[in-house]
Amino acid sequence: MPRSRAGCINCRRAKVKCHEERPYCTTCARRGHTCEGYTTKLRWRKTASPESIRCSSSTTFQANSKELPRSPKESHLLFTPLHRSPDAIPDGIVPPEDVTAVQAWFSRHPREMVVSSHFVDEMNANVLTVLQLHPDAIRDTIVAIGQLYLDRLGCGSFISALSRRQRTLARLRTMEDPLRNLELALCMFVQLAGLEIVDMKTSPGEVGLSGILSCAAILVDRFFLQDRHPSHIAKYFLRALARQDMIMSLTYQRRPWIRTSTWLDEECLSSPDRFMGWTTTLMPLLEELCELAEDTRLELLPEDDDEQEKDGVSTTFFRHEQAVNLQLRIENWQPVVTDNIPAASRPTLLAHATALQLASLLYLFRIIYPAGSLLGCDQQASEMGRTVLSTLGVVPEKLKTMLWPALVAACEMCQTEDRAVALNVFDGIYTSRATATALAVKAFCVERVWQARDTGQDWDWMKLIYRYPGECTPI
Questions:
Q1: 188 Cβ neighbours under 8 A, 6+ residues apart
Q2: What secondary structure does DSSP assign to 129-160, as a single string?
Q3: What's the whole-model pTM score?
Q4: 182-198 and 158-174 helices, crossing angle to 10°
Q5: 60 beta partners
Q6: Mean pLDDT over residues 202-213, rounded?
C-alpha cells in the first residue's frame, strides 16, 4: 500500500494508507493500535539571536535587555541563542501577556534539562506537538516554569507560577479520561516535576516531586493493566518520569514506582534518551540495585527462602552473594553506542555513562558496607568516590544531569583537597543547570554529611536522607 503523507502519526510511521478520519483514524483501530492523532508539521527557522524568536505571525517573542534585569550569576543562562526555535505556532495559543514567559521556557528549560544540546530540538518538538493539541493545559505549565526563571531576574511573578501550578494540578484531578489522553497527562507530570526542580523559593522539605512521581506511576500502572499500548510521544514523556523515579528510588533506597518494563523497548537500543543518554540499558540493573537497597534497609529476606533463616549471619551472607552477582553484571555492562549522535556530543554521553556506572558500583558497595562501619571500607569507598569525581570533573558543565553520582561520590570525601574537587563539580553542574535541586544537594552534602563526619557523628548519607526528609533531591 502507498505511504500516507497526510495521515495520522501511526500510519505515516508504519508507511500504510491512512483513512484520515478525525480525530482518530479507523486504520489504527483495525490494526489494533491506539491512534496518535494528527499534528501540524512544525516549521523551523535558524536563529542568530534570542530577540528574533517568534511564536507566530501575529505573536513575536522579543527579549528587551532594558526590561530584563540581569543577575551576574544567571544572566548568561537566559535568552541565549537556540539551535532552532519554533517559527509557527497557531494564533491564539500564546496570549500577549504570556509571551515573555514562554520565551524564557524555550530559551532556557530544554537546554538545561537534557543531557546534551543535541536533544534540545527533539524536546521542543514533542512539547510543541502536545501544546498544539492541548494548548490551555500545556501553556500553563510552560508559563509557570518561565515565570520562575524570570522571577530570579526580578521581572517574573512567583505568585503567577504557583497559580498556574495549582491550575495544572486541578486539571489532572478533574481530567475525565487520563488513560485516553496519556500523552497529555504525562507531559503535565513532566512539566510539574520541572517546576519543582527550578523552584528556588519553596523550602526543600516542601518539594512535591515524590507525590508527582507517585501519581504518575499509578496512572501508568492503570494504563498497562488495561492492556493498552502507549503512543510514541507518551513513551517519550514516560521515560523522563522513569528516569527521575529511578534517581529518587536510589536515593531513598526503595523499589522504583515506574518499572523499566513499561518503557524499555527496541527504540532505546537504537536511540539515546535526552535524560538517560546511552544508559537506558543500565536501568534494569539499577532497578535490581534499588530492590537490594530496600531489602537491606528493611532487613527483608526473599519470599522464596525455604529455610526463612532469621540470624544475622545467614542474612549477611545472602546479601553479599546478591551484591557480588549484581556487581559483576554492572561492571560488565557497556553502553549501547549509536551512530546517530554528532561527534561533539559523543564524549559527553560516554562520560555520562561511565560516571553513572561507577557511582552505581560505589552505591552497591555502601549497601553492603555502610559508611563508618569499617575503616578499611571507608578508605576503599573514598578511592571509588575519587574515581567518580575524576570522571565528572573533566567538564562538569557538560555533565549537568549527573547530580546523583556527584552526591554519592562527594559524601565519601574527607580530605580538604578532595572536598574542594567535589565542590567544583557541584558548582560546575549549577553553572550550566541552575536548579534548586543542585543547590540543595550541595548543601546536604556539606552541612549534613561532612559536618556529621567532622564532628564524630553518624555520617552515613543513606540514613541522613531519612533524618532530613526532602533536603536532598539529586535530580
A1: 137, 138, 141, 168, 171, 172
A2: HHHHHSHHHHHHHHHHHHHHHHHHTTSS-HHH
A3: 0.81
A4: 150
A5: 54
A6: 75
d(CA 268, CA 338): 10
Residues 237, 213: Cα–Cα separation, whole Å: 12
Residue among 221, 338, 237 nearest 278 (CA): 338
**Strands (DSSP E) along 324-466, which ranges?**
none
Task: Give CA–CA dist 263/234, Å, rounded.
Answer: 10
User: Please, what is the angle between helix 403-410 and helix 346-368, to 10°?
Assistant: 40
Compute the distance between CA of residue 119 and CA of residue 303 in angstroms, rounded to an integer: 43
Cis peptide, bond prior to residue 474, ω within 30 of zero: no
- Locate 382 and state its grid cell: 573514598
Place of cell 575524576: 390
C-alpha 5/C-alpha 107 separation (Å) is 32
The grid coordinates of residue 182 equal: 496519556
Within 272-311, where are the H helices?
283-298
333: Cβ contacts below 8 Å, ≥ 6 apart: 281, 282, 285, 357
Distance between CA 36 and CA 339 in Å, rounded? 28
Extract the C-alpha cell encoding 471. 533536603
Tell me the Ramachandran region of residue 38: left when phi exceeds 0, alpha when psi lies from -120 to 50, beta otherwise.
beta
Range from 73-82, 92-101, 263-272, 307-316 carrying the lowest mean pLDDT: 73-82
DSSP-derived secondary structure for 56-96? SSS-B----TTTSPPPTTTGGGSSPPPS-EE----TTSS-G
195 neighbors 171 (Cβ within 8 angstroms): no
Task: Please list, in sequence order, all residues whose beta carbon lies within 8 angstroms of the beta carbon of residue 177, skipping any fewer than 6 positions away.
Answer: none
**Contact yes or no for 277/243 (Cβ under 8 A):** no
Check pLDDT > 80 for residue 43. no
CATH architecture of 1-38: Irregular (4.10)
Residue indicated by cell numbers 553484571: 329
438 vs 407: CA distance, rounded Å: 10
* Segments making up each domain of the chain, as ranges: 1-38, 47-261
Identify the CA nearest to 168 among candidates 186, 133, 141: 141
Residues 6 or more apart in contact with residue 272 via CB below 8 angstroms: 115, 278, 280, 338, 341, 349
pLDDT at 69: 35
Type of residue numbered 309: E
